[in-house]
Each structure stands twice: as structure tokens, then as C-alpha cells.
Amino acid sequence: MKLLLAVAIAMLAFAANSVLNRAALIGGHSDPVAFGILRLMAGAAVLAPLIWWRGGSLRAVPGGSVRAVGVFALLIYVGCFSLAYLQLDAGLGALILFGCVQITMFGGAVLSREPVPALRWIGAAIAFGGLAWLLWPGVGTVVPVGAGAMMAAAGAAWGVYSLNGRGTGDPLAGTAANFVWAAGAAVLLGAAWSLWPGSYLRVDAHGAVLAIVSGAVTSGLGYALWYRILPQLAASSAGAAQLSVPILATAGGALLLGEALTPAFAIAASIVLGGVALSLIRR
Fold this sequence. Notes:
By secondary structure, the protein is mainly alpha-helical. It contains eleven helices and no strands. It has one domain (2-280). The protein is globular and about 50 Å long.
């Protein structure tokens, strides 16, 4: 029962990232760049002390090309995630993100010549088809092309981030190190952005609170909880649990932000999540 509760809390945290980001942007409380910077800074501020409290050290985390790829992928994920939610509803964005993460990781398995069962091929094809139908102009639900591409890039970046971190001895320490480096890089990029003519960073107190909660609680502590319980879950169970994230984000967007659930989106979500669920069946 404790494990089930922990999984439920972690999935709620992941879904809440979409709702918090969307709430800050549609309410005019923050621009996407400022939100992303604050999110990374808050995540680093929570994860780094957590590693030290645990008796570890970020200095012991390997660096080099593996670290560079992780930091770059994290920056792309957070930046594109924030920009996409200027136009996408919380549930729609979460579905595109989740589908692209799974497809990217499937592609990584194929490229690394891992054995891929037939059901995983079929499931990935169904999920990809559902996303293609959802994003095809004038066919599925209405998805702004630019915002959809941004969220697809965020999903691909998170998939690369996950693939890059596989085999890491301490994934939580690796994530903390990535957040620290990415937060520093984001501050520098944000400063450069604000110097560009006509560009500026804008966030009010409400937007800052939403970004800090997203970074410190639903990202930082959410990841810490997930990595703590992940060893207790079978790979298929962990993947299946994440199927709930787009559904929870859709419910949060409908209840808290007044976003509508269209029949086209419901059909696309069923196809994408059904395909992913099929790919998780071992036999």
C-alpha cells in the first residue's frame, strides 16, 4: 500500500508540472523563459542539498560527454516544454510529450540493437500513428504547429536524457548535477536573451511561486521520490504507471484551468496510450 501511494504521488507530481506551467503562462504571470529558469534553479536548490544530506557529493558524479549531453537535453526539455504551453492545453501537451518520450526511447533501443519484441514494434507503431493523427493539420484535434513541434522536441530531449542516464550508478545524484549545471547555463542564456532588443524576462509573484513549486516540489522532490521507489518496480510496471500522467494532466487542466476535453483528443489519447501499453507487455 505504501508503494502504491508513493507511485501515485510521483505520477501526480509529474502531471502537475504541465498544469503549473500552463497556469503561469495563460494567467500572464510569467513568460516561458523566466518560468523555465526559475524551475531549473528551484530544482537545483532542492536536489543538490538532498544529495549532500544523503552523504553524497556532486563532485563524485562523472562528467565529460555524458554530463554535457544530459545538461543540454535538460535545457532543451525545460525550454521547449515552457514555450509549448503558451498554446497547448495541459493534457494535450502531456500526451505529446509522453508519446514522443516513448518513441525516442524505442528508437534508442533499436539503434543500440537491443532485442525488440514484436509487440513492442506493434505498440510503438500504434502510438506513433495516434500522435501523427493527433498532430496532422485539419484531421485530429486542433494543435498549433509550432507549439506541437516544441513539445515534440521536449519529449525527444527527455527521451535522450533518459537514455543518456541509463546505467548511471546513482541516477538521483546525476539528475541533481544536471540541474545545477543547467540552472547556471539557463541564467546566462536568460541574461543574454534579456539584452536582445525587444526581449525581456517577466514574472510576477504568483508566477514565481508556480515556477518554484514546479522546480522544487513536482520536479525536484518528485524525481527524488520516483528514483527511490523505481528499484522496487518491474520495468513494465514503471512504464505502465507513467501512462497515467497525460490522463492526470488532462483532469487537472479541466478541473483547475477550465480546459475542454474534445472527442478527437480522447480518441487520440486512447490510441497513443493503448499503443504504449501494448509495447509494455512482455509476452
